[in-house]
Amino acid sequence: MTTVVEQTPEELRAWRARLLAEVRMTEDELAERAENYQLTAEESAVWNTLQGIEYLSGAGD
């Protein structure tokens, strides 16, 4: 059985902000490090989660 979690846009923004605070970076800084293959394991997990949130929320359209 699949579990579906629904979150409001405000909740997603707050989640993104918490993730970025955990790695003490802006999204641009994290993206630059990802582009240069310089992410730690924790940063990589945050980057992948941010990309997933963006994809699922349709922000990448």
Chain-wise SSE layout:
Elements: H1 9-23, H2 27-35, H3 41-57
Question: What's the β-strand tally?
Answer: 0
- The ordered string of helix (H) and strand (E) elements is HHH
Mean pLDDT: 90
Distance between the termini: 29 Å
Q: What oligomeric state do these chains adopt?
A: single chain
Q: How large is the share of residues in beta strands? A: under 5%
Task: Provide the gyration radius in Å.
Answer: 12 Å
Structural class: mainly alpha
The stretches of 5 or more residues where confidence is low (pLDDT under 50) are none
- Share of helical residues: 55-70%
| Structural shape | globular
What can be said about the biggest beta sheet? Answer: none
With helices defined by DSSP (H or I, 4 residues minimum), what is the helix count? 3
Written account of the structure:
This protein has helices spanning 9-23, 27-35, 41-57. It is 67% helix and 0% strand. With 61 residues, it is mainly alpha-helical. The protein is built from three helices and no strands.
